[in-house]
């Protein structure tokens, strides 16, 4: 896929922490990155300190010693540039499938942000080169496996470092696989010959897991709004009540996310003839099932967890993660800030949230298909039950995804496999946690899309009673790609069409065209 670099509205790095919004823009929209002159001056100043230490006969980690368990070995001055090249080459040891372009661009921007703080001791040419690669749309090939989430995302960042020195493979702005040196020459970018500490500074950060966290928070925020919409469609189609979402009832338990979710559902269900039609004294349903009645409690708790994850991401975006680091007063000190625990924990929390929101969505879909619980709809919403199976197997697909999500919710951050001859004897597995969260978010999107598809069919089958304006808008959007009820059709393409509408934001936008922006 060709993605032309966007040089308009460039993200300026080095005037403060990079924002989550800027990460998304650079990662997904191809926006260029520009380093401020103020940042370059700070980089130049801290570099002078590293060069002074390099001339000193005493050992300084990463400048005049080996790495990890080899830190006890003093490296002679003549070999120190080779030391940095060797570090990048040896640590570029990834394996597996290529990591997505947006993830690599995010981690490049975040590493650039740290380099531009002046706390890593690199020369300005290194900072400019990383920025130039981003701006030219050149994306180093990074692989799925290789990071333990401690000492930073070493292997993924080393593959980026390999491109900085003109080695390894990259994807150019058109997505074509090319040798790094060739793509850089075509873009007018010269490879860097690394000096003391620069190889280490390129790889010693949590940028990969953080980039994936930022992208995940962005996506989950929208999916939780969509979950409120699909839950509302199910409440309506299953003849549930909206009274339980009233603000005064929610205020009795002042969880902030819960109040937002309930308010969203009230707005989506506003002016529903279906809801009004059975809200009469002769209605025999006293309470709705938990998957309907408690939807705001689950989606609300998910929001509160997401708020916490975004706070952690914000702290990390304001960080300068490297080891050793050049302090503001000019000291060069070893530290443990590269440990990915803060990011790993919240990434795992979000995977739990995703699994539970999806699980509740699947339960609502299942209620639509059960004649004993769907209040008068045909079994499986089938056109001619027995001849037709309706959405029976769509729920199987949902169930299979939810089962996978429950496995993906098992935390990666509780695992640790010691490495580097026991020097790195506790690691975060934050990269692995973030990788599985990306898969989980795809699963949640699919589960919500199937709920929307099934609920829309259920609402159509309630005719001549009509849906609320907001839910009707969602049904109408689905009907642009998927026909309404009828005899069985090839279902997989219809599910994929619904997934595309969910992933693109079209279903949420349809509801919000009536309600205004949801919380």
From TrEMBL:
GO terms for biological process: L-histidine catabolic process to glutamate and formamide; L-histidine catabolic process to glutamate and formate. Belongs to the PAL/histidase family. InterPro entries: Aromatic_Lyase, Fumarase/histidase_N, HutH, L-Aspartase-like, Phe/His_NH3-lyase_AS. GO terms for cellular component: cytoplasm. This is Histidine ammonia-lyase. Pathway: Amino-acid degradation; L-histidine degradation into L-glutamate; N-formimidoyl-L-glutamate from L-histidine: step 1/3. Keywords: Histidine metabolism, Lyase. Its EC number is 4.3.1.3.
